[in-house]
Amino acid sequence: MKTTVFVFATLxxxxxxxxxxxxxxxxxxxxxxxxxxxxxxxxxxxIVLLTFVTLYLSVRVLFRTLQARRDLRKWRDQRVVxxxxxxIIFGYAKLIEGNWAEAERELLxxxxxxxxxxxxxxxxxxxxxxxxxxxxxxxxLDLAFNGERKFRDAVQLTRIRLQYQAGQYEAAKxxxxxxxxxxxxxxxxxxMEAEIYLSLSDWDMLQKQxxxxxxxxxxxxxxxxxxxxxxxxxxxxERREGTGxxxxxxxxxxxxxxxxxxxxxxxTYCRELVACGKLSEAEVQLKAAxxxxxxxQLVRFxxxxxxxxxxxxxxxxxxxxxxxxxxxxxxxxxxxLKVRLGNSESAQESYASSLRLGASEEAxxxxxxxxxxxxxxxxxxxxxxxxxxxxLRQGTGQNISDGVEPALLLTPPDDIIDPRIVR
Length: 423
What we know:
By secondary structure, the chain is an all-alpha fold.
């Protein structure tokens, strides 16, 4: 573009001089005794311009000659910088391909000339970790950390992530704690912190951090609920050993009210109470929970707790049966309580009722055992057969909800148990 403008300007000037010279060429006299030079003004101007251009070009050539070594060195440096930029592209391409050694070599061979050494060192650290070269990984991360101050938080978060991936959970926790409070409040830092505590089974620390995670919106509501359940289940289990149930109750008091209605968490708490010998307290807790929020899962466990008040438990279950007459698990619990109290005939009726409401392997097995003990061997075998058919049918994924009528639920329902047995 510059050349075009220069040529156009030169031609325009020559045209103007030629046009002026046609009317008045002018006159220039240069006299220096004993010499004297005469020429037209147009020619003089042309000679002056040519002389100026010649001198300018000569000076430029001279200076470029004197600066040739510096210019060559500058050109070489620029070429190295360009190649260093290409090394980053090739290096990360090798990382994607899984060629760790080649990636590390590409990223480090011209790192001193790279315009983005941070990317070189971080990529090399990742490649070194894949080869289990943790000392080299840490060295590259230190170089990245000591490079640009404004990216130190990003480097440390990368260090934590790599340490976690390498199974170095304690080291990751130490690195995380070394960061500023403002960084630790960020969503990405809190999520990594939670993962570290989960891997370390540090349930106490994780329980303390849960309110901060909720405040920082680092997890969705469903994720927080799942995390809370996991944490408190583990805490309840750990508190059992050698405490007589005191720490179990204290831990339960720390559970958020919204979580105390969860059947799985309630069952975990009550099982720990039972393990500590507090059977009566576990029954009270289960009874209160079932009265407020019915759960087949909890009523099953309620029936499993063996105390001296089986008569009262049976009466309570029969009251619940009036409220929930279609609960197969409740019918099964009632049958077991009757067996415990020695009322076999009534227990068989409850087993049959449970099977009509919803067949289960344990109901078939327990009823078969009862029939076998009472001498009804044929009926016991028939019951075992129905249970086996049910188990096989369940294994194929066929159930009542799929619209498939299992063999054990043939019409009429009384065919499950011989009418002579269910009187």
